[in-house]
Design brief:
Order of helices and strands: HH
Structural class: mainly alpha
Radius of gyration: 24 Å
Distance between the termini: 21 Å
Number of helices: 2
Number of strands: 0
Number of domains: 1
Length: about 90
């Protein structure tokens, strides 16, 4: 059976993605805080930002889980085929 090596992200990539995330959230938050509008508008925009970030994490996790499920199912199907082929070869 073929061994699948999980792809490992480099430390530099992980640092870059977290830095980009923190920078984007920080700049957006600073922008909302400095808007020349009432506090209830700022609060509404802040809640929108919070919900957008939360739903993005949920969507990313769901997409990752779906991908891992498909990968696992493919490995199970491959193992079943190999078992059937091995049984067929032993019968001959």
């Amino acid at each position: 059976m073929q061994q699948l090596n999980p792809q490992k992200d480099s430390f530099a990539w992980i640092v870059q993605t977290w830095a980009a995330f923190i920078f984007a959230i920080s700049i957006t938050t600073i922008g909302i805080m400095n808007l020349p509008v009432d506090n209830w508008v700022k609060g509404f925009m802040g809640m929108g930002l919070a919900f957008s970030v939360g739903s993005t994490f949920t969507l990313a996790k769901t997409t990752r889980d779906l991908h891992e499920t498909k990968k696992l199912n493919a490995r199970i199907d491959e193992a079943k085929v190999e078992k059937l082929l091995a049984q067929h070869d032993s019968l001959q």
